Amino acid sequence: MTSTQVHSQVFTRAHSIVFMSDNVRNTLREVIRENGISPDKLMQDWNTIELGIQTWLRSGHLNSIVVEFFKPGASEASARWEFPIGYTGSGLDDDMWLDKNYLRQLIAKAKRPTSDCTYRIVLRKDIGAETVAGFTDCSFLSTGQMSARPAGTVIATGHMTAGATYWR
Q1: Which of 46, 67, 81, 108 has the fewest CB atoms below 10 angstroms from its CB?
Q2: What is the pTM of this model?
Q3: What is the predicted pLDDT for the residue at 13?
Q4: What string of DSSP letters covers the chain?
Q5: pLDDT tens-digit readout, 16-50
Q6: Distance between CA atoms of 31 and 72, rounded to whole angstroms?
Q7: With the C-alpha atoms ordered 58, 91, 121, 64, is the resulting torsion angle positive or negative?
Q8: What is the CATH number of the domain that holds 14?
Q9: For all residues of the chain together, what is the average pLDDT?
């Protein structure tokens, strides 16, 4: 492999990481907003969330991004979305997309939190992942009687994908 080919692979992987991170933000914002809750907290915390996402995508340690909707003080989620990360993309460097129409269809099917809910973003990573400032270990809220509905890929690049799982 020539140095130009190596540089090209590194550049396209880095571009995939930025594309994935940006579109995860857009996806989370859409899910939060379409559930009638302000995404302001997401946007205020985005620099820290983005640092975690990009660091762990780069190392291959990020497993999923989760948004849990809950009533303040509750131990059970009112609604939940997961975006599992896959590290096998299409293999085509210029294959990058976000399926917004499909995402909107999924949002329409998912359980909606009540207007008195808030949310939190949790990044699930492998043990041994690099420490990132602003992140601590935590447990997921109970999902009670809800069940997971895996729904396929919503974001894809040549190097990685993000699926969607909503809970009902």
Answers
A1: 108
A2: 0.90
A3: 76
A4: --HHHHHHHHHHHHHHHHHHHHHHHHHHHHHHHHTT---HHHHHHHHHHHHHHHHHHHHT-EEEEEEEEE-TT-SB-SEEEEEEEES---S-TT--EE-HHHHHHHHHHSPPPPTT-EEEEEEEE-TTPPP-TT-----PPB-TT--EEEEEEEEE-SS-EEEEEEE-
A5: 999 999 999 999 999 999 999 999 999 999 999 99
A6: 19
A7: negative
A8: 3.30.900.10
A9: 91
Which range of residues forms the domain containing residue 133?
Answer: 3-167
Provide the pLDDT for residue 166. 97
CB 155 within 8 A of CB 89: no
Burial (0-12, 13-18, 19+ Cβ within 10 Å), 118? middle
- Report which of residues 55 and 9 the model is more confident about: 55
**What are the tokens at 13?**
């992987």
Q: Tokens at residue 161, please?
A: 């994908």
* Per-residue model confidence (pLDDT) at position 91: 65
Copy the structure tokens of residue 128. Answer: 């041994």
Residue 5 has pLDDT above 90, yes or no: no
Q: Which amino acid is at 93?
A: D
Number of domain units in the chain: 1
Pairing outcome for strands 62-70 and 79-86: antiparallel
